[in-house]
Amino acid sequence: MKLHKSLAALLLAGCLTVAFTGCSVTVNEPLSMDVTQALEDYAAENLSSMEEGMEGSGVTLDITVEGNTIVFTYTNEEQQDNSDGSVSSDLDAAAESTANTFESAVDQIAEEIHQEDIQLRIVYLNADGTELGSYTYSSAD
Predict the structure, then answer these.
(1) Which sign does the torsion angle of CA 113, 133, 126, 88 carry?
(2) Is 69 helix (H, G, I), strand (E, B) or coil?
(3) I need a surface site. Which of 32, 70, 94, 96 has the fewest CB within 10 A?
(4) d(Cα 67, Cα 39) in Å, to the nearest integer?
(5) What is the pLDDT of residues 54-103, one digit of tens each?
(6) Quick one: average pLDDT of 116-130?
(7) CB 71, CB 43: distance < 8 Å
(8) What is the dihedral of CA 62, 66, 69, 72, to 10 degrees?
(9) Which residues of 75-106 are buried (b: 16+ CB within 10 A; e: fewer)?
(10) Which DSSP state fits 140?
(11) At residue 130, what are phi and psi to the nearest 5 degrees?
């Protein structure tokens, strides 16, 4: 039961990633031609509240930008027993079933910041920092 509760929190955290897709960019200044700066501007203006929104969920969220990639790192606050790989397997299945949603989200970000070749990486970490799953979605060419 505890595993299912924590897994549900992790999956919910992933679903929150796409919550911003209905929002439009609110950057007040012209976006930089540099893709990293454009993504940093976008994240600062549109995604920072998502980190705060995760408080009390059992999962922390850290949003960073690495080159052309926005990285959502979800860290479970309680250690999950993944010795049999079941947590990672469940995350893999959920990532596969929601891939179209994440791809649409990254396409929208790329369009809104007028940049090409944008990526969105979702990383799930256990409380001890070990990776439970990592999934990368790219904007359409």
Answers:
(1) positive
(2) strand
(3) 96
(4) 9
(5) 888 899 999 999 999 999 999 999 999 999 999 999 999 999 999 999 99
(6) 95
(7) no
(8) -10
(9) bbeeebebeeeebbebbeebbeebeeebeebb
(10) -
(11) -75, 145
Q: Which domains does the chain have, with CATH numbers?
A: 2-138 (3.30.300.250)
Contact (CB, 8 A) for 110 and 139: yes
Has residue 25 got a pLDDT over 50? no
Judge contact between 59 and 69, C-beta under 8 A. no
Q: Which of 5, 18, 9, 20 is nearest to 98 (CA)?
A: 18
Model's pTM, two decimal places?
A: 0.80
Backbone angles phi, psi at 3, to 5 degrees: -60, -45
Q: Does residue 45 surpass a pLDDT of 80?
A: yes
Taking alpha carbons only, the member of 127, 124, 122, 123 closest to residue 80 is 127
